[in-house]
Every structure is written in C-alpha cells, then in structure tokens.
Amino acid sequence: MSTRTAEEITSAFHRAVQAAVWAPSVHNTQPWSFTLDGPELALRADSGRKLRLGDTMGREMLISCGAALMNVRLALRVLGCQPQVRVLPDPDRPALLATVRMGEAVAADEHTRLLHAEIERRRTHRAGFTELPVADPLLEAFVSQASAEGARLTPVRSEAAVRVIAGLTGAAQDVQSQDRMFTLEMIRWAQPPGSSRREGVPAQGYPRQPGRTSPYFAQRDYAHGHPWGSDTDQSGSTSTGTVAVLTTPGDSRQDWLVAGQALQRVLLHASAYDVSAAFHTQALEMFHLREFLRQELLSGEYPQMIMRLGFSVDEGEGIRRPVTEVKQERRTA
Ligand SMILES: Cc1cc2nc3c(=O)[nH]c(=O)nc-3n(C[C@H](O)[C@H](O)[C@H](O)COP(=O)(O)O)c2cc1C
Description:
CATH class of the largest domain: Alpha Beta
Helix content: 25-40%
Strand content: 15-25%
Radius of gyration: 19 Å
Number of helices: 9
Distance between the termini: 27 Å
Number of strands: 9
Order of helices and strands: HEEHEEHHEHHEHEHEHE
CATH topology of the largest domain: NADH Oxidase
CATH superfamily of the largest domain: NADH Oxidase
Bound molecules: flavin mononucleotide
Largest sheet: 5 strands, mixed
Structural class: alpha+beta
C-alpha cells in the first residue's frame, strides 16, 4: 500500500467534501457535517437541519447524507484510491454516520469518472418533461446502478399505478398545505428572489408557470402565493416522464444511507445521459400514505424516494454553503 503524507490526505479529503456538498438534500437543507481526524474523515448528520414535522424519524436527512457519502466515495476514487467506508461504525454515537479512510491506490475506471463529472452539473427538475421518452436500456442501467448499492429502483410501467402515485402525491400535498406548522417549516427553506442565503430552495429553482403534466404530480409550494420562480418557459414540456420508486427491503438508518447512495448513483448516471429527475416525496412524509404505497404497490418494500425521470430544456444553477461551513479539522495535541 502506498504511504501518503498528512498534506496529501488533508487535500484529498478537502476535495471529497467539496464534492459531497453538491449532493441533493431535502429542501436543500444540506444536513451534514464533516470532520477531518488524522487519516479519517467522519460524516455526521447535522440534526439542527432536520425537518421536525416533515421528517420526524430523520429518514430524509439520512438519505441526503447517504447521497453526500456517495460523492465522497466517487471523489476519492477519482483521486486514485479505494475508499474504506464504515457505515454507522459506533452504536454509542448515532450521529456518526460514516467514517472514510483512503485505502489502496487504484486508478479510477471510466464509469467512475463519468459519474464524478456530473456531481456539480446535476440539478433537480420541477416541471414537466419534453416528449422524448427515456429508452428502456437506459432505464435498465438506472435499475442496475441502484441495485449495485443494495437498493431497488422500480420504473412504474402501469398507467393505473402512475395515477395512484400521482393521487397520493396530490393528497399529501393538499393535507400538508392545510397544516400551518408544516407550511411554516417548509417556508423556512424557501428563498425569496435575490436572497443571498446558500441553502434552501432558491426562487430560480422552479419555473413560475410550470407545464402541467397528466396525470398531475403536485409540486411542493415553495412560492406559497408569491409570484416567485424562474421565467424559463416550460409550458411546452408537459410530459410526466417515467415515474420510478426507489425502495429498500428494510427501513433502518442503514437502509436510509443505502437509499441515499443508490439515489445519487442513479441521478449521476442519469445526468450523464442528460436525464433529469423531479422528486415528489410528500406522500412518503405521511405514515399512512407511505404504508399504503408499500403494501399495495411495492410488495412490502419500503419506498424511500418517488421520482419522475425525463429530458428537460434547461435547469437553473445550484446553491450550496461553502465547504468551510461544513468541514472542521480535529487537531490532536
Ligand atoms: C430525501 C429528498 C427528498 C426530496 N424531496 C423533494 C420534493 O418532494 N420536491 C422537490 O421539488 N425536490 C425534492 N428534493 C430535491 C431537493 O429539493 C434538492 O436536492 C435540493 O433543493 C438541492 O437542489 P439540487 O438537487 O438541484 O442540487 C428532495 C431531495 C431529497 C434528497
């Protein structure tokens, strides 16, 4: 095994965190923190950023952190090492989600480079898609990416099942929008135009007048009555795209981290082929609706993400907190 200097390790971990912050996270809460401790990088959940009402168990927070962990792994692979990852290494420290060390030197393969190149380019879509369908071989490739991480991505082929998922999304969105406390929690992460905050969903992150898909998949109401949103004309893009559900066999913290890594791997592979994802996770935040989906449509597997996949005209820019805000170094005396 090659010996690395402390400077080389610090520099590699810095680049890994630079990549990590571009992971998707629920409402762009970016609920992670990283600590450099000698040869080890620790990933922790930042529970102050958890959605207390929308995400009582911290499931979406851990999916977000899992996606960030995938970026760390890819960044280290591209720097020429096989990362050694321990997930949930210490039961007495539940906030410690993973530790990562730089393992043996090994050159990155082409696919790893392909995924890595998409980390900053990938964006969440919040409108209809163009009419161009996602071809079956590409969908199969997405399914393989998820299964390589231990999760299952199921493209929903039945029109009736797509209508059921759209209906559950609409029901959840309607219930949540009636709930004042829930709305206030979401508004905290919705940024007005011109905001300089580097977190939350910016007003340019969704079109002001999105084309309406059929069946209609309700979007989160980030504008909550304001004329916010980008001027991008998405009115001609009204295709639903391919609806897909990411599931895991269990529903533990370990499963959520698996789901996050699988999600990010699917999204990066999709992005490399110009396929974007729109998320509709409202129904998964309501126990009974999630259970209904699990039992009636998903053969008992636990739904972790609901998405639509398709081609879009143009995506906005992403915003993230600077690395200095999420990374600290533990100095040993
Ligand atoms: C667990 C999870 C749930 C999400 N749920 C939704 C959702 O219901 N609606 C939505 O528009 N975006 C959703 N997103 C996407 C985030 O809002 C998005 O990742 C974040 O704003 C950062 O933007 P970016 O993905 O374009 O970089 C979700 C992301 C994650 C990881």
